[in-house]
Amino acid sequence: MNRRLFCSGLATLPFASCMTSEPKDFKIGVCDWNIRSMGVPEAFSKTKEIGLDGIQLSYVPRHQDYDLRQKSVQQMYLQQAKKNNIEIASMAMGIFNKRPFSTDEDSAIWADECLDIMLGMNQKLVLFAFFGKGDIKGKPELQKKVISRLKALMPKAEKHGLTIGLETWLNQEEHMRILDAVGSESVKVYYDTANMEKMGYDIYKEIRWLGKKDAICQIHMKENGFLLGQGKVDFPRVKEALADINYQDWLVMESAIKGDMIVSYKHNAQYLRTLFNK
Q1: Domain extent for 89
Q2: What is the spatial distance between Cα 236 and Cα 240, in angstroms, rounded to a whole number?
Q3: pTM of this structure
Q4: Which of 265, 267, 270 is nearest to 31 (CA)?
Q5: 97-125, pLDDT tens digit by residue?
Q6: How far is C-alpha 206 from the chain's CA centre?
Q7: Which CATH number fits the domain that encloses residue 198?
Q8: 16 φ, ψ to 5°?
Q9: Three-state DSSP class for 87?
Q10: Number of separate domains in the chain
Q11: Using CB atoms within 10 A as the burial measure, which of 82, 147, 165, 274 is most buried?
Q12: What confidence score (pLDDT) does residue 97 get?
């Protein structure tokens, strides 16, 4: 289904305020951890080698070589982005999988630091991860702590138009309970196709349900153990769901590696461009 055909029909919906201009082709990005360049400047040249538009860049707190709190390091990253003609699609804090945002005292400090880094690098979106030790599925007390810590970040996020995207094992209703409890447009869901499919959720319905509540900030186009288009996720149906909610942000590839990493992502990028941008 051609997403451009939805524009006129969706113009009356609250999440469709950007309908006045013709949508552009989707930009294709990749997670820096999947190209073995987590939080380091080499991510930009590798992304260029693959032929992509952008990178999801990690903030790795206290990196011994590349401390993003330093303005000089921020500028060096921005120079690398410009040199390689690669954009930063969003930032990410995968550290929370090992040092949980819900309970680790340093994590709250790092989260606040990341917002400052985003301001210094002119970024608007960061992913907070909740897997491994950071999992909050079925843990209401931890979810309460997450809500409390998110609320503490909201004054800065709201003042500067920053968004925190939650990537979790939660279903649509569980996500919305957290978003409603925080009570801010600066917290949304970072949707992941493979993770939600693994949990047994109807991802095509979830995308529509969350999207029509303006609750999705960005999406991982992900498969586990398969290249995109060859696994369990029906990406043509994902395309239809994203068209229904007028999603026009990045398509960020994650995992979906089979054999050589560079070859895999070149294939995946071509698959997404052929499917979404024809």
Answers
A1: 3-276
A2: 6
A3: 0.91
A4: 265
A5: 999 999 999 999 999 999 999 999 999 99
A6: 16
A7: 3.20.20.150
A8: -110, 35
A9: strand
A10: 1
A11: 165
A12: 98
